[in-house]
Amino acid sequence: MSAEERNIIRLYLNKSHTMLEYGSGYSTLYFSQFVNAYYSIEHNEQWYKTVKSLIDQSPIISLIIKKYILIPINPGYKGWKGGFSEGNKIQFHDYIHAVHSLNVRKFD
C-alpha cells in the first residue's frame, strides 16, 4: 500500500471508530493506532503467526486490537498438477462469516 493510499484511509478514521479488517498485515499495526477498537480476521496461518508476534510486541496496539482471529481455509486445487485455486465462496464460507462471532453491533 502506498503512502497516498494510507493517507486516504486515515482521513476516514478517528479515535471513536471501531474498525474491521479482513486480511491482516502491516496495515493492522498502522491503522489500529487511529481508532478506538480494531478487529482483524486472517485466513493464512503462517502470516497470522507473523502478524500476531508483531502485535504482541506492542502493548499499546495490543490494547486497541480487541480480537485478531485465524479462520483457515482449504486452498483447493485446479488442474492436473495441483496448482492452487484462487478460492471460492464455499472455501471462504467460515472466513466470510467470522465477523458474526465477534459480537460487535456496528463497525465504522
Ordered list of secondary-structure elements with their pairings:
Layout: H1 3-10, E1 18-22, H2 26-31, E2 37-42, H3 45-56, H4 59-64, E3 65-70, E4 77-78, E5 83-84, H5 93-97
Parallel strand pairs: 1-2, 2-3
Antiparallel strand pairs: 4-5
Radius of gyration: 15 Å
Mean pLDDT: 89
Oligomeric state of the chains in view = single chain
Question: What is the highest CATH level, the class?
Answer: Alpha Beta
Number of helices: 5
Question: What is the helix/strand order?
Answer: HEHEHHEEEH
CATH architectural category: 3-Layer(aba) Sandwich
Uncertain stretches: none
Helical fraction = 25-40%
Give the helix/strand class: alpha/beta
Termini, distance in Å? 21 Å
CATH topology: Rossmann fold
Q: β content, as a range?
A: 15-25%
For the report, how would you describe the main beta sheet?
3 strands, parallel
How does the overall form come out from the CA principal axes?
globular
Query: What is the number of beta strands?
Result: 5
How would you characterize this protein structure?
12% of the residues are buried. This protein has a single domain (17-102), classed as Vaccinia Virus protein VP39 (Rossmann fold). By secondary structure, it is of the alpha/beta class. The protein contains five helices and five strands, in the order αβαβααβββα. A three-stranded parallel beta sheet has the order 1-2-3. The protein has a two-stranded antiparallel sheet with strand order 4-5. The model has no long low-confidence stretch (mean pLDDT 89). Strand 4 (77-78) and strand 5 form a beta hairpin. The radius of gyration is 15 Å and the shape is globular. It has helices at 3-10, 26-31, 45-56, 59-64, 93-97; strands at 18-22, 37-42, 65-70, 77-78, 83-84.
